[in-house]
Amino acid sequence: MIPLKDNIPSRRYPLINIILIILNFVIFLWELSLPESLKEYILYNYGFVPQRFWNFKLSFYHIFPLFSSLFLHGGWAHILGNMLFLWIFGDNVEDNMGHFKYLFFYLISGIIANVIQGFFSYNKYIPTIGASGAIAGVLGAYFIYFPNARIITLAFLGFLIDILYIPAGFFLILWFLSQFLLGVSSLAFETTGGVAWWAHIGGFLFGLIIAPYLKKKRRRRFDLWDF
Predict the structure, then answer these.
(1) Of 63, 60, 151, which is closest to residue 114 (Cα–Cα)?
(2) Strand partners of residue 155
(3) CA 204 to CA 202: how far, in whole Å?
(4) Could you tell me the CATH number of the domain that includes residue 132?
(5) How far is CA 108 from CA 4, 105, 112, 158, 202, in A?
(6) Domain carrying residue 121
(7) Rounded to 5 degrees, what are φ and ψ at 159?
(8) With contact defined as beta carbons under 8 Å apart, do 121 and 153 qualify?
(9) Neighbours of 97 (CB within 10 A)
(10) Which residues touch 121 (CB under 8 Å, ≥6 apart)?
């Protein structure tokens, strides 16, 4: 199933969500322009390598990849899939949190997701890259805020292709269950690369837990933190 759109319009311009999408594409295009040797250097020095993090050295070299890895992608399918989900689900979550809190939430979700992926990784020397852990946090928040929204979904039913209007809660539960089952199977078969299933699981659960505390309170006065 491929989500195409939801049925909830944003009440104001999703500034941070748009900036995040643009920034991800700009960095990805920069990656494409690099020679292969430099791409590998970027991957291993700015991607999140669990073994390096678990050395517990509080240095820029060890900590910064938790953040920088969120803006690196491995190919067109990787970034297009991630940005599609961020485009569909991120604007409404930003609307409910406010711009600054949404940015903070997005980054922390990605960092938490990286740490959880690092804990469950079979080979802790393989870098984790991509925005999917942060976006999974956004999906968890969307589940809390808009479970009754409708997701316009492209569904492949055998040889048939159809457009379905699926309740957001149901869509996201199916998504999470698929990530969980694939995450468990990756442990059972000691998968050493590919999709960071546990980053998705961890990010989503973090979003579920923290989203209720970040929902913007409606006030008549101007609040800079809610901007």
Answers:
(1) 63
(2) 162
(3) 5
(4) 1.20.1540.10
(5) 26, 5, 6, 39, 11
(6) 2-226
(7) -90, 0
(8) no
(9) 23
(10) 50, 128, 198
Separation of CA 52 from chain center:
22
Query: What six digits make up the tokens of 111?
Result: 């960092």
DSSP 54: T
Take residue 205 and report the two structure tokens written for it: 């659960």
Q: Looking at residue 227, what is its pLDDT?
A: 42
Q: Which amino acid is at 184?
A: V
Q: Which helix (DSSP H) or strand (DSSP E) does residue 113 occupy?
A: helix 99-120
* Residue 225 DSSP code: G
- The DSSP 8-state label assigned to residue 222 in this structure reads -
pLDDT digits (tens, 9 = 90+) for 5-60: 999 988 889 999 999 999 999 999 999 999 988 999 999 999 999 888 777 667 77
| 25-105-111-179 Cα dihedral, nearest 10 degrees | -80
Question: How many structural domains does the chain have?
Answer: 1
Conformation bin of residue 87: beta by default, left when phi > 0, alpha when psi is -120 to 50: alpha
